[in-house]
Hints:
Elements: H1 3-17, E1 25-31, E2 36-43, E3 53-58, E4 63-68, E5 74-78, E6 84-89, E7 95-99
Amino acid sequence: MKPLLRRLALPVLLAAATPAxxxxxxxxxxxxxxxxxxxxxxxxxxxxxxxxxxxxxxxxEQVLVGGKLGDDSKLTFKRPDGEFYVLFDAGPxxxxxxxxxxxxxx
Length: 106
């Protein structure tokens, strides 16, 4: 291996060996007791998710409520009739689905 390539290869290999700092998406939804649901999103490293897309989707794939999490990483909406799921979408590999059956009272 040429000397220049050898000097460049070591930093590249060391950078590739550094462990990735993963932060997994999290989303929790609860009934408020007034016919509404509040969902809060975030990441496992403790960071919030302000501005992340959170959609409520019927089982027929129709978007029932489209929105983004507020500055407090929360979104509150009226509970839809029928079956639905909440889709927290922070990008590829950072998606969480919460089924209506898993949403309980606080």
